[in-house]
Design goal:
- It is a single chain.
- The protein is of the alpha/beta class.
- The chain folds into two domains: 1-135 and 261-318, Rossmann fold (3-Layer(aba) Sandwich); 146-259, no CATH class.
- Helix content is 27%, strand content 23%.
- It is built from nine helices and 14 strands.
- The chain has helices spanning 43-57, 87-93, 118-125, 160-165, 177-185, 201-209, 244-259, 277-288, 303-307; strands spanning 2-9, 17-20, 22-23, 28-29, 32-36, 76-84, 99-107, 136-139, 214-221, 224-230, 236-237, 265-269, 295-299, 314-316.
- The protein has a five-stranded parallel sheet with strand order 8-12-13-5-14, covered by helices on one side. The chain has a four-stranded antiparallel sheet with strand order 2-1-6-7, with helices on one face.
- A hairpin with a 4-residue loop joins strand 3 (22-23) and strand 4.
- Helix 5 crosses helix 7.
- The two termini are 28 Å apart.
Length: 318
């Protein structure tokens, strides 16, 4: 799934405006869209509007209170989204049209929001790690892979708690990642029928995103198994010795693999948080190649990243 157009009215932090995410040369949604502007111009709010609209149509978790979504000078907010479906999604739901519209209303409107298309509702409410099923992933600006935390070993990818936390800003959604990396390293990452998945998927994804380290197996620390890393000179590093940018790359890599991110909408806030501008550009371009036929919508102020794409791919706020 991808977004072709986003129209907002009365939404907190954003001007009343329609935003096009369409490549005029192909009339298809861009696979990479950058949202930029000065501080407090609405970059994060742009991502929030997408999440709010999606959740009202097909929720993963509890709906946000309307008071947090409506601009102070408005009585209600409206978000209209033109969703572009992949060929596989159209075939799965028997949809002849290339795209479907949704309209979400928050706040003091006397009219309820229009009833969404049942196929679109089913599509947007599905969160499944099956890589053939599209989904929505959100990497918030303050994301952090917490080290040394206790992990609930009963949690699996795609369970109810996993689904409910996907679009929030609580780092608890990343808590299962270390267990997943270890399981993958031990060959315990299996399909629903119990057959092993292809080995080395997390390692390959991490190396695609991180030019400075590679996963070199597992080591035991007390009662725990943890991933070990090597640099270009084959010097060994523990997880705790990685830099913040390397931890961030590991977070992205493990999430993409664990969640089966293909034909999905991926929202990323501030990819440059631990990186220089050129490195942020390389990270985002590597993320566009991780997975198949995704759409990345990225809130950023990285000038090298902004300069690396066509001007039509940049939405400027403020």
């Amino acid at each position: 799934m991808k977004i072709r157009k986003l129209s907002v009215d009365g939404f907190r932090g954003l001007p009343d405006r329609e935003f096009s995410l369409i490549d005029p040369r192909s009339d298809a949604a861009f696979s990479l869209v950058l949202v930029t502007g000065p501080r407090a111009s609405g970059k994060t709010s742009f991502l929030d509007a997408i999440i709010a609209a999606k959740e009202q149509v097909g929720p993963y978790g509890p709906e946000q209170p309307a008071s947090s979504l409506v601009r102070l000078d408005a009585t209600a907010a409206k978000v209209r989204v033109d969703w572009e479906l992949s060929n596989a999604e159209r075939e799965r739901f028997g949809i002849g049209k290339r795209s479907l519209l949704s309209e979400s209303i928050f706040g003091g409107s006397v009219m309820p929001p229009p009833t969404p298309d049942p196929a679109l509702e089913a599509l947007l409410s599905t969160y499944d790690p099956d890589p053939t099923l599209g989904k929505v992933e959100y990497f918030h600006a303050a994301r952090r892979l917490a080290l040394g935390t206790t992990i609930d070993l009963s949690r699996t990818a795609g369970d109810a708690f996993d689904r409910m936390t996907r679009l929030g800003r609580d780092d608890i959604k990343y808590a299962p990642l270390l267990r997943f990396i270890v399981e993958a390293g031990l060959g315990l990452d299996v399909n629903a029928d119990g057959t092993p998945k292809a080995p080395g998927r997390v390692s390959a994804a991490f190396e695609a995103l991180c030019p400075t380290k590679r996963i070199a197996g597992l080591y035991r620390s007390g009662d725990a198994m943890l991933p070990a890393f090597l640099d270009a000179q084959n010097r060994a590093y523990s997880l705790a010795q990685l830099s913040d940018s390397e931890i961030d790359a590991l977070l992205f890599a493990a999430t993409f693999v664990r969640a089966g991110v293909n034909e999905s909408l991926v929202l990323i806030d501030t990819p440059e948080k631990h990186l220089g501008g050129g490195d942020a550009r390389e990270l985002v371009l590597a993320l566009t190649r991780l997975g198949h036929d995704n759409q990345l919508i990225v809130a950023t102020r990285s000038e090298p990243l902004l300069a690396s794409v066509h001007s039509d791919q940049v939405i400027r706020l403020g």
